[in-house]
Amino acid sequence: MRLLYNSLIAIITVAFVTGCDDSDGSNHSNDRGEPVRSETSEWSGQVAFGGEVEVKGIGGDVTFMLGVGDDVHVEAVKNGWRNDPSTVTMEVVEHAGGVRICAIYPDVPGQAPNSCTEGGNNTSWNNDVEVDFTVRIPPGLTLEAGMVGGDLTALGIENEVILRTIGGDIVISTTEIAEASTFGGNITVTIGSTDPGRNLVFNTLSGNVTVTVPAAVNAIADVTAFSGTVSSDFPLTLVGPNHLQGTLGAGGSTLTLSSSSGNARLLRGP
């Protein structure tokens, strides 16, 4: 299953039917001295090997990291400056294919109610609460995240990763495969699979794309930078302005690197 954006500003569905909600209502200040109210929620549960862990939100960062044991553990920290963090509810929806984790904002008048269903609506209007997710996961699960205005990170993991954000950076390091897309940020990805098995896309509208693949990878490479530079550690052919293509190893699925306003680099890993 892939995260689908209804539009660039269709602010992505987020929900979190939590198994445990530890809202402490603490208060502190940001680096400008502005008062910040915070609440924290946690959820733990098991997802069958090969299942999916999906995170969806509006405003905030998502960090995936390798956990301990077989459980998926989620911590969500809600920070509000003008608005009360309690106006954003956390939901975790467990389903046959895995678990969907969302931050649900108040409904916007005139729009469909917000929900954490697959493809469900989740929009926000004039609410400054940000929700940062930290997700600890075992190997063998597929990780997905879709955010509006947040950075997405997945480092040192052993999972397939699909991350998309509007207005943030993406950093991934996995022994498996990955995909990444952002409308305003940099993409830095390292994958470990030598035979991806399907096409992988790494795309940004405004930023740099850097992807590192194994030296023995079997794939087709397509590297484009519409208003920047392109480079590759592998021997590729210049087929157009700032456009490289070529076969890596025995060929196979296509690795597409694309930047509309930035540089695109394909690097050779170990």
Describe the structure.
With 270 residues, the chain is mainly beta. The chain has two domains: 10-146, no CATH class; 177-270, no CATH class. It is built from no helices and 22 strands. The chain has strands at 26-29, 35-46, 52-58, 62-66, 71-80, 89-95, 98-104, 130-137, 142-148, 152-157, 160-166, 170-174, 178-182, 187-190, 200-204, 209-213, 219-225, 230-232, 237-240, 243-248, 254-259, 264-268. It has an eleven-stranded mixed sheet, with no helix packed on it. An eleven-stranded mixed sheet has the order 6-7-3-9-11-13-15-21-17-20-19, with no helix packed on it.
Strand order of the largest sheet: 1-2-5-8-4-10-12-14-16-22-18
Evaluate the radius of gyration: 19 Å
Helix content: under 10%
Shape descriptor reads: globular
Number of domains: 2
Intertermini distance: 30 Å
- Please report which band the strand proportion falls in: under 5%, 5-15%, 15-25%, 25-35%, 35-45% or over 45%: over 45%
Order of helices and strands: EEEEEEEEEEEEEEEEEEEEEE
**Largest sheet report:** 11 strands, mixed
Structural class: mainly beta
- The poorly predicted ranges are 1-25
